[in-house]
Amino acid sequence: MRVAGQPFARLLASTSGSDADWGRKDSRRLPDEVPEHAKLGGYQQMLSADILRGRYREDPSKPAPIEPNKVLAYRIRLPNVSHTFLPGHRIMVQVQSTWFPLYDRNPQTFVPNIMHATPENFIKASQRIWHTRDNASLIELPVVGRVSESLRRGGWIRLDLVGLT
Predict the structure, then answer these.
(1) Which residues contact 30 (CB under 8 A, 6 or more apart)?
(2) Burial class (CB in 10 A: 0-12, 13-18, 19+), 155
(3) pTM (2 decimals)?
(4) Which residue has the higher pLDDT, 66 or 134?
(5) Is residue 15 within 8 Å of 95, Cβ to Cβ?
(6) For residues 144 and 139, what is the distance between their CA atoms, to the nearest angstrom?
(7) Is the model's pLDDT at 149 over the cut of 70?
(8) Is 72 in contact with 12 (CB distance < 8 Å)?
(9) Nearest to 138, CA basis, from 158, 163, 164
(10) Radius of gyration of the CA atoms of the chain, in A
C-alpha cells in the first residue's frame, strides 16, 4: 500500500487541565522478525509527525483555555508523507500528550505565555481520547493506487482509533 500526501487526525479528546498538547506520529513498523536483518525486527521508522497545542485549536493567533473534562474535536495536520508499506509491514499510529524534550513542556494550565509559566502553573493532568459509535476519533491517510474498497473512502483510508483511553 502506498500513501502520498498529507495525513490528518480527528481526535475527540478531553483533558483535566486547561491546556494540553496533542501529538501524533505515524510510523512504519517492521515485522518482529526480519531474517535477513535480525537487528531490524520490530523496528519503527517515523514517517510523519506533528503536535498541536490545545490552546491554538480554534485559531493559531488567539490562544484560548480548554474547558476541563469537556470533549472537544481537534484536527491535527501532519507534514506530507510518501511511503510504500511492504507486505508484513504495519502502520503504527501514536497519539501522545508530550514530546518533551523535543517540544517545550506544557504546564497543563492555561497561562498567557508558557515561557513565563511559574512552577505553580505546572500540574498533573489526565488526557483522554474518546471513541464512540457516533463520534469516532480517527486518522486519515492519503492512499495512492489500489487498496481494499472496504477501507477506502474518497481516496483516503480512515482508521478508527479503537481501544484508546
Answers:
(1) 40, 41, 42, 43, 44, 45, 88, 89
(2) exposed
(3) 0.81
(4) 66
(5) no
(6) 16
(7) no
(8) yes
(9) 158
(10) 18
